[in-house]
């Protein structure tokens, strides 16, 4: 018997030959259940195969058509064929007696078992459950075609759904990538803008610092610093001189009264109070005059120096006389004398220091070894924000009286206007935010905005 066909699903026509051979081997009509298991088919195909045989299975639950009657088996004893025994003539042998084999015993012939009924193949015009076989086969083929088309449609729809999910995943991935790219571009633009602003600010500030260092090293700035030393010495020394003079005024008045034996409340007694202010005025006049002369290239001679120190020693002597008390023991007179001497000694020390530093200032040579501003290559246009084609607008009438910090803010604002950070007429809020960084006095920003508005008018 050949194995069942490997084509799945197999048609009834393809399984008929294998089914008949299998039924012949079994010697009987197989059951529908065995047929389904053997050929792995459904109930309809099993019934169709069973219908191709003449006799249905004993346990068939559904009849497949009219059954053919098997041949009748003999009921009586089998007839015994008649065998006539003929006499066998044996010729005597004179030489020897030979035993003859009597041969097989002949009895009744055995009856072979009945051969199995050959399967009867249904003709083309047979029926299955009242339907023609060809119509059943066509119906099954149509069902198989429908199932095949349905499976192909399901497979196509599943493939389309899978492709749709893949395409949607690709679109979402592209959207996320585009969003990340936009975020990165925005961050790059913000960083670039911040870096550009920092570069412009550093460029302007660095240029200013470089120019400031060059200007500070110029001969003009050195001369200004030397002159500032003389101003500071006079501004600090003259008040100190006046303070020590006020302290020694009482001592000088007491010394004058004691030397002249003036009565208390008399005109001389009142005039004695003007002695110390007069002496200190002489010293201050000499100090200030000498400083002014030295700043202009002149100087004083020894006569002014003698007058200055004579006035100081006179003040010291009168203080010592005023503090001398003859009624006290000698060892107790040094304390009052020293206390009265603090004023004139301090005034003399301050006068000496003023003259000393004034001599240092006069001896200074700021122009020696220092370049002049005219000799320096100072690019002021880089920090002033001027353009070659710009119209020179008049300054504010009082612009030269601006404080240093306001003037610096004005220069920074002009630089911001020149590089496009601010408009030509910026508001005070814009100046305070972009130039001052949101910190500092807003009144300065308002003042600079008013100056720029006046220049634009």
Detail the topology: elements first, then pairings.
Layout: H1 12-26, H2 32-39, H3 43-51, E1 127-128, E2 131-132, H4 133-216, H5 219-260, H6 267-271, H7 275-295, H8 302-323, H9 334-363, H10 381-384, H11 404-418, H12 428-435, H13 442-456
Antiparallel strand pairs: 1-2
Helix pairs in contact: 2-3, 5-7, 5-8, 5-9, 7-8, 7-9, 8-9, 11-13, 12-13
Describe this structure in words.
Residues 55-82 are annotated as: Disordered. By secondary structure, the chain is mostly helical. Among the domains are: 219-363; 385-456, no CATH class. It has helices at 12-26, 32-39, 43-51, 133-216, 219-260, 267-271, 275-295, 302-323, 334-363, 381-384, 404-418, 428-435, 442-456, and strands at residues 127-128, 131-132. The protein has a two-stranded antiparallel ribbon with strand order 1-2. Strand 1 (127-128) and strand 2 form a beta hairpin. Helix 5 (219-260) runs antiparallel to helix 7 (275-295), helix 11 packs across helix 13 (442-456) and helix 12 packs across helix 13 (442-456). It is rod-shaped and about 175 Å long.
Brief description of this entry?
The chain is built from 13 helices and 2 strands. It is mostly helical. A hairpin with a 2-residue loop joins strand 1 (127-128) and strand 2.
Uncertain stretches: 55-104, 117-124, 386-397
Order of helices and strands: HHHEEHHHHHHHHHH
Biggest β-sheet strands, sense, barrel = 2 strands, antiparallel
Q: Count of DSSP E strands? A: 2
* Order of the strands making up the biggest sheet: 1-2
What is the straight-line distance between the termini? 118 Å
Helical amount: 55-70%
Radius of gyration using CA atoms only: 71 Å
What is the number of helices? 13
- Percent of sequence in beta strands: under 5%
Region (Disordered): 55-82
Keywords: Membrane, Transmembrane, Transmembrane helix
Transmembrane segments: 231-250, 270-293, 305-324, 344-363
Biased composition (Pro residues): 68-80
